Amino acid sequence: MSASNMTSTHPAAFLLMGIPGLEHLHIWISIPFCSAYTLALLGNCTLLFIIRGDAALHEPMYLFLAMSAAIDLVLSSTTLPKMLAIFWFRDRKINFYACLVQMFFNHSFSIMESAVLLAMAFDCYMAICKPLHYTMVLTGHLITRIVMAAVLRAVTLMTPLPFLLKRFHYCQGPVIDHCYCEHMAVVRLACGDTRFNNIYGIAVAMFIVVLDLLFVILSYIFILRAVLQLASQEARYKAFGACVSHIGAILAFYTPVVISSVMHCVARQAPSHVHILLANLYLFFPPMVNPIIYGVKTKQIRERVIGLFLRKDV
């Protein structure tokens, strides 16, 4: 066998097929996708504009919220425009390296989102369980370190993936049965021993979801215990109401992940488009609903949004 055949080769481009089995419905499917992307852009840009422009909102809770909004913008913008191009124009081709970049951004920013939700749980815990120490603990320096740790963890865990995928020979063809480049979907096209990629991908996913979710649940166990110890019902309602928006964001982020994981385990024979639609729900649902959750449930954000539109009407 020649040396050229032993080296790693890859196609110049992949073909993203969208949602296999539902090609005849792509135009109709694009309507909720486009609406979700528009809402995500408007909602998260509004949150960033309000938080950046109001010094009174430069507090830990709102800084974490701003980071979450920025992450949601990146997550939705790296995938949904290409999905819409597939649905509207049948533009399925994506450059090999562009595919790896998209995959890196999708997975790394999802990990950052999970870290931000954990940081917000810690913020709620400090505000309710340790209110006298809140300002001493959650300083600007600590927030900066938390943000840097979230970014560093995501980049460190995801940087190996493009290099691992680049070394494979792709003899299964260039067709990806998905709307975007996802690690396991690309690995299925590779020849050779892909066990390390499979194990690494599953281990990272389990590590992030299980570890972060475990600490979030522990935080809320302590929060619930502290709330139930308050003397009056009004005080309990006010204390727990401060974390309602964060609970909503946690449910919006983790519920699609859990449902998709359960479906992969118990319904492996389900049509592929079911799994792909669930994966898409995980990508566009949180960016769409997070601004609504925080806008409705957070008084300070709600008042400033109303004020912003009232000033425009004057």
Automatic annotation (TrEMBL):
This is G-protein coupled receptors family 1 profile domain-containing protein. Odorant receptor. GO terms for molecular function: G protein-coupled receptor activity; olfactory receptor activity. Residues 43-294 form the G-protein coupled receptors family 1 profile domain. The chain crosses the membrane at residues 25-50, 62-88, 94-122, 134-155, 199-223, 235-254, 274-296. Keywords: Membrane, Olfaction, Sensory transduction, Transducer, Transmembrane, Transmembrane helix. It comes from Loxodonta africana (African elephant). It comes from the Eukaryota. The keyword Iron does not apply. One of its GO terms (cellular component) is plasma membrane. InterPro entries: GPCR_Rhodpsn, GPCR_Rhodpsn_7TM, Olfact_rcpt, OR51/52/56-like. Its main location: membrane. It is a multi-pass membrane protein.
